[in-house]
Amino acid sequence: xIVAATxxxxxxxxxxxxxxxxxxxxxxxxxxxxxxxxxxxVVMVFKKVFGFDELRARRHMLEVHEKxxxxxxxxxxxxxxxxxxxxxxxxxxxxxxxxxxx
Length: 102
Prior knowledge:
Number of domains: 1
Oligomer: single chain
Structural class: alpha+beta
CATH class: Alpha Beta
Strand content: 15-25%
Number of helices: 3
Shape: elongated
């Protein structure tokens, strides 16, 4: 049986979707305090490796010195591992850890 079009249109149901923005793989690079490296050396490394300006590099260096650690970067695991490897090449003690906030 064939039905002829009568000119009435049926409204298309609207669907809404909710998306959640979240980092798929959030990791932090943490620099740990050590008794070997000079403060000025740590500042220089932060500037070279992360491109920090003088103030930001000094702030992170002081946090390492006073609190024993500083989170210097956060993002995907592969990049975090690369930063930790680079910091080790500069003889700084650094680790990656999962970012529980994501």
